[in-house]
Write a structure and sequence with these properties.
The chain contains twelve helices and five strands. It is α/β, with parallel strands linked by helices and 245 residues long. It is globular and about 50 Å long.
Length: 245
């Protein structure tokens, strides 16, 4: 049976770190593990008749980069179109939330691109899923709500509607890291998310991050349809592996 694992956590909480370590351990146990990006690499390699997806980066010198970018964009748009037809209310709500944000247009375009990538990845996974396949969505639909609801009351009916409409995964791994720690990580690695928040909130950035921590707690409380595993300080990976198998 194919499984979908979604991660929730503040930017800088350690979701990708946990996902990468978890991916390595699951592969050792014989599972095929994918993210949205790795699924796209596999599919593009199939189209270009490359024998191994990991060789794609080495082939770019002899193949047109524009060709690869065109194939990736075309594939993403086609898959997202199918996703949007199945989850039309969800996509409509996401776009309304994005366009209502009080942020620069460049950031809105980035959120739209992420929405397309996440939707396309979900559609592609559901087309190829089979036994012993696990989809690790370290920046999935629930995590993205942190961006959409950054200035909206977490007790709003709109958040409940968002969670009801979002595609459902089998597990939710909640990487629970203190807001101050996550924020400091973003600052140290010069992450674009930090500078975006710093530009918007200035001296109130820590207060805003604390409010986002409450928002993700609210999200985890609302997703009763999922099996939730809370990970504190990147937790015990063996426990995560056994919760899946």
């Amino acid at each position: 049976m194919a499984l979908v694992v979604e991660f929730l956590g503040l930017p800088g909480a350690g979701k990708t770190t946990v996902a990468n370590k978890l991916k390595a351990q699951l592969k050792e146990k014989g599972f095929k593990v994918y993210s949205a990006r790795s699924l796209f690499r596999h599919k593009v390699c199939d189209i270009m008749n490359l024998s191994r997806p990991c060789r794609l980066q080495f082939k770019l010198e002899s193949l047109s980069r524009n060709r690869v970018q065109y194939l990736t964009k075309t594939l993403r748009n086609s898959l997202f179109s199918s996703f949007a037809s199945k989850y039309s209310e969800y996509v409509r709500l996401c776009k309304n939330l994005i366009y209502s944000l009080n942020v620069e247009n460049n950031y809105k375009r980035l959120l739209i691109r992420w929405l397309k990538e996440e939707g396309a990845g979900w559609e592609l996974f559901n087309r190829i899923c089979s036994d012993n396949v696990i989809y690790l969505n370290d920046e999935g639909f629930l995590h993205r709500a942190i961006s959409y609801f950054v200035d909206i009351d977490p007790l709003s009916v709109e958040l409940l509607k968002y969670i009801e409409l979002a595609p459902k995964s089998n597990f939710l791994f909640y990487v629970k890291t203190p807001p101050g720690v996550a924020l400091e990580r973003l600052k140290k690695r010069n992450d674009h998310v930090y500078w975006h928040f710093d530009k918007m909130y200035g001296n109130n950035i820590e207060t805003k991050y604390n409010s986002l921590d409450f928002l993700q707690d609210r999200i985890s409380d609302l997703v009763a349809h999922k099996l939730i595993v809370v990970i504190v300080n990147e937790g015990n990976l063996e426990r995560l592996v056994y919760s899946l198998i």
